[in-house]
């Protein structure tokens, strides 16, 4: 019997740098978990590649997949759908591999309901002011969009309660190190190890 | 108001390599926790230094400290007392520094009762056979002492239930890395961060 993999969920306010942290983690050679690529109806940003950063879909395609129950979670956010294809997640966990999701907070809430044992990490901005700077600096969004994002972010920070861990994104390298530590620590949790370990001792 | 430090307790069966792991951790430059030196009535092994490895005390001195309530925990183990001076631990935690204890399992149980929020890490042998090898290889103990140790170890492994985390001591470097990850992860736990973080946001 293969022990199931761990579902790792990285989420947090829009603009906090979830994508950057995720990319940094998966650029490291020793990363031992699998990235579940999200699906979205928003337009690709410069440099984003279909099937790498996201699966880019039309609104019609996305709504069809919702109907078919093919999404573990989905959310409409600033006018676009974001979601996680369910089959890949379940199959990979069954193989005993850890799966890493980088998703919006609305989606994380849905995943928590379906996977209460998942590992939920909230990526937090050093401050809301800092968060605003980052969104403005990105420079690709209108002022109205920025205001909407800020209001959404304030609400999202209130959602921290849902998570097991909070990682402040001051420096991306440190944030990545903390995420890796959290995953490694979680694999050492007594409840997870105990059963396997005691069985090993019985065999002798 | 200073946030209290974290009490980290590393324990596990005799002979599993607690001392080696502890020394490796404290030889690393980036270790940010304070080591609480244990007190014992056993004779120093070769190379052990009073006030560095242990505070070596006579039986009479030790029993006097027990009477005065100066020990956070103590245990009699294979005919010798082992214990943790309480004042150093409390003062260091109050300063907001993490304190690291490396103690026997009997002692860890007592600490758990007094510090239920502590971080309890069980250092586990890859197998009981491997444990026996290590005790024999150490080569400084009689056969009877080894048998006693093995029986004690089997009983101690049953005590894993008391701990938050289990780290298998296959390779000392990996065990150290895991202990460090566990401490870093624990500092990111939502319950710990949340209060401080929400206050920070209110200030703006």
UniProtKB/TrEMBL annotation, chains A, B:
<dbReference type="GO" id="GO:0004385">
    <property type="term" value="F:GMP kinase activity"/>
</dbReference>
<feature type="domain" description="Guanylate kinase-like">
    <location>
        <begin position="5"/>
        <end position="184"/>
    </location>
</feature>
<comment type="function">
    <text>Essential for recycling GMP and indirectly, cGMP.</text>
</comment>
<dbReference type="InterPro" id="IPR027417">
    <property type="entry name" value="P-loop_NTPase"/>
</dbReference>
<dbReference type="InterPro" id="IPR008145">
    <property type="entry name" value="GK/Ca_channel_bsu"/>
</dbReference>
<keyword id="KW-0963">Cytoplasm</keyword>
<dbReference type="InterPro" id="IPR008144">
    <property type="entry name" value="Guanylate_kin-like_dom"/>
</dbReference>
<dbReference type="GO" id="GO:0005524">
    <property type="term" value="F:ATP binding"/>
</dbReference>
<keyword id="KW-0418">Kinase</keyword>
<dbReference type="Pfam" id="PF00625">
    <property type="entry name" value="Guanylate_kin"/>
</dbReference>
<protein>
    <recommendedName>
        <fullName>Guanylate kinase</fullName>
        <ecNumber>2.7.4.8</ecNumber>
    </recommendedName>
</protein>
<comment type="similarity">
    <text>Belongs to the guanylate kinase family.</text>
</comment>
<dbReference type="GO" id="GO:0005829">
    <property type="term" value="C:cytosol"/>
</dbReference>
<dbReference type="InterPro" id="IPR017665">
    <property type="entry name" value="Guanylate_kinase"/>
</dbReference>
<keyword id="KW-0547">Nucleotide-binding</keyword>
<dbReference type="InterPro" id="IPR020590">
    <property type="entry name" value="Guanylate_kinase_CS"/>
</dbReference>
<feature type="binding site">
    <location>
        <begin position="12"/>
        <end position="19"/>
    </location>
    <ligand>
        <name>ATP</name>
    </ligand>
</feature>
<keyword id="KW-0067">ATP-binding</keyword>
<keyword id="KW-0808">Transferase</keyword>
